[in-house]
Amino acid sequence: MEAACTKSFPPLLDYKTEKYLLTKNRKIGIFHRLLQLGILCYIVGWVFIVKKGYQESDSDPHISVITKLKGASVTKGFREFQERLWDAADFVKPSQGENVLFLVTNFISTPGQKLGLCPESPTILNGRCTEDSNCTEGEPVISGNGIKTGKCNTTHFTCEIYGWCPVEEPHLISKIPLHEAENFTLFIKNEVHFSKFNFSRSNMKQTSDTTYFKTCTYDPVSSPYCSIFKISEMVTKAGHSFTELAFLGGVVRIDITWNCDLDQSESACKPQYSFRLQDIKNNFRTATYYWDEEKREYRDLLKLSGIRFEISVTGEARKFGLVPTAISLGTGCAFLGAITLLCDVILLYLNSKADLYWGYKYEEAKPPKSHEATEPAPVQNLSID
After folding, report:
1. Which of 149, 166, 301, 315 is 20 to 30 A (C-alpha) from 253?
2. Residues near 371 by Cβ (< 8 Å), separated by ≥ 6?
3. What pTM was estimated for this model as a whole?
4. Is the dihedral of CA 76, 81, 85, 88 positive or negative?
5. Is the pLDDT assigned to residue 205 strictly greater than 60?
């Protein structure tokens, strides 16, 4: 009766316990040890030493950036070839203090414009004509300066337009009238705060010397906390020539990176700067409006070319933490366990003696009958080659 009950139990209710089997298979043994060594090197070398898996991190710091550019230049050709002084209020757009600024290095000046009739510029393709029929009245000139009046100017072979006259002439562009801009300096004040660790750093040296920032320029070795950069040096580090870039303008990106290991001293937390050229040719137009004594409106038009500086700040702070340490160790233990499973699969399924190993590893232990001895059989030490 008892045997019948035992046979009626489904295999799902069987309990499997672990059995250790010593095998003299050198290939599997060497493979097992090599995998263990590889996992240990990965955990110790890559996870803990290189990636510092024992540290928790904060990669979303609070950031503030303040910029200030200094320099001055004198040019001719603004209005009736008068001299004009350019300072920070003129050659920096937008206003000081942003993480994006535009440094004017070249311009086309069209002073004394007033609303009226005049021929379109020959450089505008849609404004060219040979007869009046080419200039549809009331039609705007595509990429041009005004509205067509229906007449063709036979002197310039361009359509007559209603707009601000005289129109801008691109061939009047000067050759880097603000060439002194390469010696201008850009002051970048940057502060980061890692709220997770309540840690803050600034790229400015804390000093009581009031003349320090008036004489220093940034150098990664001698003055890493001097936040003043020379324009020409930044453009050169971006991989371009200031003379070429200043003629038609461009975009230079300034990346400031903070990688702080808070398990070390605070002085080791220094900003790293990198510069790269993102685009060539950059300009926009601006105008100043005024009225004469007869209340007629005029404007001075400027097409400004220059270098746009875009400042980006990123950072990450790391510090020892129990949770990431436990996770890294747990992951390593899981990998070591997976090695044993992999070797078992090779031994029991892919080996030429898999049936033999299978028979030794998996043995069915049946309960003794009532008339048989209940003492367990002696343990055998099996070595399989």
Report:
1. 301
2. none
3. 0.72
4. negative
5. yes
